[in-house]
Amino acid sequence: MGLDIKIVDGTLADEAQVFRADIGISGGKIAIVAREIHERADRIISAAGSYVLPGGIDPHVHLSLPFCGTVSADDFSSGTRAAACGGVTTVIDFAIQGPGTVLEAVRARRAQADPEVCTDYSLHAGITRWDAQTQHELPAVMECGITSFKLFMVYRKEGWMADDFALYEVLRESARRGGLVGVHAENVDLMEGLTARLLREGKTEPRYFPESRPAFIEGEAIGRAVRWARASGGNLYIFHLSSAEGVEAVAAGKCAGVRVCAETAATYLGLTDERFGEPDGHLYATCPPVRTAADNARLWEGLMKGEIEVLATDHCAFSRAQKEPGRHDFTRIPYGMPSVEVNLPLVFSAGVSAGRMSLPQFVRLSSTNAAKLFGLYPTKGSLQVGADADLTIWDPRQERTLRAGDLHMRVDWSPFEGRVVTGYPRMTLLRGEVICDGGRFLGTPGSGRFLARGPTQYPDR
Ligand code: URP
Ligand code: ZN
User: Would you say the CB of residue 184 lies under 6 angstroms from ligand 1?
Assistant: First the structure.
């Protein structure tokens, strides 16, 4: 049998083990994994001194998102190009229900994404109206491979907010078919009340932004969502977990036997709210906000203990010019930060290179757990024969200073400007095609595929 590609002399790691083996790729799939592969191949890639891992899966990106009076700067082409250069081969964005139906939102979002994507992708369905029509449509949405949902517990004025009944109902209805319900968990009444009071007191500078969204409003909302998951028998996922209180609420849910999982990001692991006091503090506003060093530490602990299953980004990039209206008024900041390209290198560096995270742990957090939760496993997130040949070859010794000017995200700043990381993706393959090599993007817009997903699978701890 002739192979398309043979990756030789690398150290492989999957969710469970680290081992020396070669990988043979044929027709975009992993065809052989063996200590030595003797078959001929059209191309041989040496991975000597490097790790070969399943491609990263980022299940939380916002590309071309109309939000806060503007549109997020990375579109499906630039955002997935940047993702690929950061070791990610699959992203999941959102089709948020507008005035029309959920299926209409999905069709519109696919029409936008399909010609542009450079990695594989899927969509979560954002449910903003729980009425008879949405309820009736839910099975059809799931049948077209959209098996996860997002309900916003905030964003009332944006028209995205779902109330507690909607959350309870979507948890209940989707669980019957193996669906997963993700939430943006913040208490909206507290957030709105605290914001109004700060404005009355003239406290509009970005340094007051964290006071408008304190950690306890996240902890409360997660606790409430966990309660509805327990009552409904639903499968719950917490997007962008930011605080120690939030981790405690997730952990308590798990202890009570609730199927609740969570994601966090390098932004929440490595930035603090001291940023809001800096001259460019408005750039760092995202919801929920980045918090304290103690929160960072508890999130790390949550990752290591398996209380948090997934590394995602909530990549929602806005340029300096887009953020400018909020320089002195935190209510006018487009919320979100750019990080899809640097999320995995930052965690690899602070986790694996620093010796506190094993390679299988990194693989579970960056790829396998998301593949399981979002119904993509084992086609994605594994090195099994028959899986898609989505691979990232990591050079564990490569040292890089992160600079916005060197990165591929379509913005003129980085929250991690000047940060030094050890360990960086050397090469990224999507279904056996090399789409990034030595920092050079080689893919093609439109070559990524929409992924119809199956039921959720609860990852092992
Ligand atoms: O501030 C954020 N996170 N922007 C993107 C929308 C969301 O809440 O996920
Ligand atoms: Zn959110």
Answer: yes
